[in-house]
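Quick bug: Cytochrome P450 output formatted oddly.
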Amino acid sequence: MGIQQTLADNLHVVLPLVLALVFVLYKIRPSTGLRSLPLPPGPKPHWLLGNVLDMPKEYPWVRFREWTDTYGDVVFLHLPMQPTILVGTAKAAFDLLEKRSHLYSDRTETVMDKLMYWDWDFGFLGYNAKWRRHRKLFHQHFAPTVISKYHPIQIQQARGYIRRMLSNLNPTAPVDEIRLTFAAVILKVTYGMNVTSMNDEYIKWAQKALEGISEAKVPGAYWIEFFPWFKWIPSWVPGASFRKLADQYRPYTEKMVHYPFETVRKDNGVEIPSVVYSLIKEARETFSDRKDQEDMELAARDTMGVAYAAGFDTTTAAGQGFILGMAMNPEFQRKAQAELEAVVGPKRLPDFSDYESLPCCRAIVLESMRWLPVTPFAIPHKLIQDDEYNGYLIPKGTTVIPNSWAMLHNPEDYPDPERFLPERFLTKDGKLNPEVRDPTTFSFGYGRRICPGRFLSNDSLFIVVASTLHCFNIEAACDKDGKPADLNAASQMMSGFLSGPTAVPCVFKPRSEAAIKLVQDTANESW
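Here's what came back:
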């Protein structure tokens, strides 16, 4: 407490000294063979502070694109103890993060991750043995060759979703119900747990934990990342908002990670069919030593915690985009419904056997992932050794921020990018067009750090899209005076590390009496 108080009382003296030291250390950094090359261009740094004051706090991806337009594919930012480049084009992203993924797969360790109890997430782990172990565990259960075993759960939850929408046709229902649907899938798959309401504590914990990390991970939002020594400053000191944020959200992250896992773990052999149960069972059957068992169980806890967290917002944001986009593009909505009528018919609901025969629905999934990406600037990578790109030096330890939003809104790849146009992914004869760049190559990350849960996410979104459009028309909601909601305003993205539409003012209207009966009959199904 004495050290904390001393730092707080003398912050006006300490800060300039630290900044001066950082500047000197940066200038005398060791030279290598590549260090004679110039750094990539970027905004002019301020003395001592570099580009810290230039870092945008709101909608950073927009400013990042402006810098790309001004300075080029790769933009250098002078940040204290954390040199950073912005990667603003698909070509540069693939050249660096895909073709040289062995160099660009590390992560920058952040103070906020530790303070908010997010350093367990293997998406944030460094490129090391622990990360490889966690990813291997994850891949065993979510690889494309095995995820079909989760199709019954995904169908069950999609049908629960359309039943709830049939009985709850109000403008706020789409947001809550789509989130509940995807949360229910991931909780059932990972922990074997059933959730039926947005008031469920598991959902509340995850929402609050993700709300916190969304604010904390905006590049440059908290100076503590540049001056980690200040983490000892108490929350009441002016400028210590990072501490308040961590104190506010850390309890929710801890509950999200520990409680569902311990619930399964403490059942002592009572089977709860789930990934976590199978991993715990494997640990107890494989190792006789209790410490080895616990190590594997903790790896299972952290690995499945990633599924729990990532399964909420990634797919939820795309699901909200699908609803909003369909209301904004009624012509394509009708085209997809005609396809469903021809392939599925009026007497049943779609399932995964229809996947290949429903290119319109698959195009909607692709456009939903492109239009309003949940991670507009992805999780930053870190370079493990000096590298050269287009005649410029990228120094070892550089943080690499891919501007996924800019790539997904590049008019050369996606003409009229601000509009929701699934037809862009189809050929004239109605098949998926392989010449259009797949947006999931941006929206799920890059190289060796690409999200391994993307296959489960895409399947969940597909079955919700197909089930919904087979039974409902999606329209803009109207106010009490009968005026339709402004969907263009609603489609503006929320600011933060995690994003999505600001609102989804839409209503579902049953397409026919036959559709109503199809939905109602799902209550009698067993899975």
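Actually, after a second look the formatting is fine. The domain at 2-524 is CATH 1.10.630.10 (Cytochrome p450). Closing.
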